[in-house]
Design a protein that fits this description.
The structure holds two protein chains of two kinds. By secondary structure, chain A is an all-alpha fold. Chain A contains twelve helices and no strands. The complex binds protoporphyrin IX containing FE (HEM) and iron/sulfur cluster (2 copies).
Chain lengths: 249, 176
């Protein structure tokens, strides 16, 4: 086995451990921290079903963003939907296509294929705003620019392999199946592929230590996930209840 | 008095280009030490105020999910930048909701996140200095905690939660 294949295998095990471990740690932290104040932004749903629908509207359609800024919404939504399609398309490297439950993987291929372009357009639009709009430029730090550069590079190197210079995907799939069964297989030594995979591993590593935490974070946002029923049902966090009990003594 | 241009009222709101520092001078008068002490606060800026402030930040982060999630989740999309009336009225960039939050977030990042500890410049993290504290005192008191920005943020990030926390931290180090 070449040293290169082994290093990439180690890199991906490491990146997966950081991604999974890091997200687990952050989600547990959000989960365990009490939310003492009833602060749903009104008009807010008054039932649990309503909250689920509100959250779905936010996650699927970016409803609040739509109200607030049409340009960010268009580019941002285009980028995220494309990203989703592309991630789903990549399932073909991970699953056994003879099994029934993966019937949708072949169906999604053409959509995932062209999503590369909409993803790049969306990201380029967001980046243009970040550079041209004075207010957005003011709030950006180097990491905000680099994040967009990283995602654009991943999308372009991927699109290059699809539309310009094909890589040997049969061996790529063998390499990934090998990773999944802890039986390392050779990775094709195609520079584009190596760049693409290296950048993806980087993205996985920085995910739990960067602003990409907005993805789990949105589900824990008290202004969006609370039922608006402060009069019907008293809202009391454990530490607030303790304070109250102490006072009553 | 600082140079200050009163914006003209037009049919539709015009979002001003930002002008650095126009409202930096504006801050409330500090309460007298004896009034602060009566409320259980130190009354004057403590010797080891940095340490106390950071401890208070951790205390609040572990008691308020809103505070912890909002410090992490902002993607700097800019959707809230033109939504605060204090920004529209003054053009001071630190009155943009996200920039107001960042006054605290950049300190959070410096002391409590991997990226901020090891690559502060990359993520805009800074040490907790007297200048930062002065900025807090000025700009966290220029937020009316109206929560308008929270309506427009894709994650509902509520600057009022952040400025409440900042004021609590400032109380605890003796600048009420
Ligand atoms: C639950 C899933 C997710 C939701 C609801 C979500 C939602 C959003 C929203 C509303 C924005 C602000 C608008 C914009 O700038 O596009 C945003 C920004 C962003 N998202 Fe996500 N996102 C999710 C997952 C992800 C994932 C998995 C990634 C990357 C791997 C990602 C990368 C980004 C980046 C880089 C930005 C900032 C764009 C900029 O710099 O302007 N998001 N996200
Ligand atoms: S709208 Fe929300 S996520 Fe976007 S910059 Fe403002 S606070 Fe951050
Ligand atoms: S809560 Fe504060 S920052 Fe947000 S819009 Fe109101 S005054 Fe501005």
């Amino acid at each position: 086995m070449s040293a290169l294949s082994v290093s990439y295998a180690i890199l991906f095990y490491f990146a997966t451990a950081i991604l999974v471990g890091g997200l687990f740690y952050k989600i547990r932290q959000y989960w365990r921290t009490p939310a003492p104040l009833k602060i749903a932004t009104t008009p807010a749903p008054v039932t649990q079903t309503g909250v689920v629908l509100r959250m779905a509207r936010e996650v699927v359609l970016f409803a609040s963003l739509f109200k607030s800024n049409k340009w960010i919404w268009i580019f941002g939504w285009m980028f995220h939907v494309s990203l989703l399609l592309i991630v789903l398309r990549h399932f073909r490297y991970f699953v056994d296509n003879t099994s029934m439950i993966w019937f949708w993987v072949p169906l999604i291929q053409p959509f995932g294929k062209y999503a590369a372009f909409t993803m790049i357009i969306g990201l380029a639009g967001l980046w243009t705003r970040r550079i041209l709009v004075d207010r957005v430029r003011y709030i950006s730090s180097p990491s905000d620019h680099l994040m967009l550069a990283l995602l654009i590079s991943i999308a372009s190197s991927g699109a290059m392999m699809k539309f310009v210079s094909h890589t040997d995907i049969v061996h790529v799939k063998a390499f990934i199946s090998g990773l999944l069964t802890f039986n390392i297989q050779p990775l094709p030594e195609d520079p584009l592929l190596l760049i693409h995979l290296g950048l993806v591993a980087t993205l996985m590593i920085i995910f739990p230590i960067s602003k990409l935490l907005h993805a789990p974070g949105i589900f824990f946002s008290p202004t969006r996930n609370q039922i608006d029923n402060p009069r019907e049902k008293r809202h009391l966090a454990p530490w607030a209840a303790e304070l109250e009990a102490e006072k009553a003594k | 008095m600082a140079d200050f241009e009163v914006p003209e009222l037009k049919e539709t709101v015009e979002i001003p280009k930002y002008v650095d520092g126009v409202m930096a001078h504006s801050a409330p008068y500090k309460a007298k030490p004896q009034f602060q002490e009566a409320l259980g606060f130190p009354g004057e800026l403590m010797e080891n105020w940095q340490q106390v402030a950071l401890e208070k930040m951790t205390d609040l982060r572990t008691r308020y999910r809103s505070f912890q999630v909002y410090l992490d989740a902002c993607v700097k999309c800019g959707a809230c930048t033109d939504k605060c009336h204090y920004y529209i009225g003054t053009a001071d960039p630190k009155n943009m909701p996200v920039a107001r939050q960042d006054l605290l977030r950049k300190v959070y990042r410096r002391y409590f996140t991997f990226a901020g500890k090891y690559f502060p410049k990359l993520v805009g993290a800074v040490d907790l200095t007297k200048e930062v504290l002065d900025d807090w005192y000025s700009y966290y008191h220029q937020c009316s905690q109206c929560r308008r920005c929270s309506v427009y943020c894709p994650y509902g990030i509520d600057t009022a939660e952040i400025s409440m926390a900042a004021r609590e931290i400032m109380d605890s180090v003796g600048i009420l």
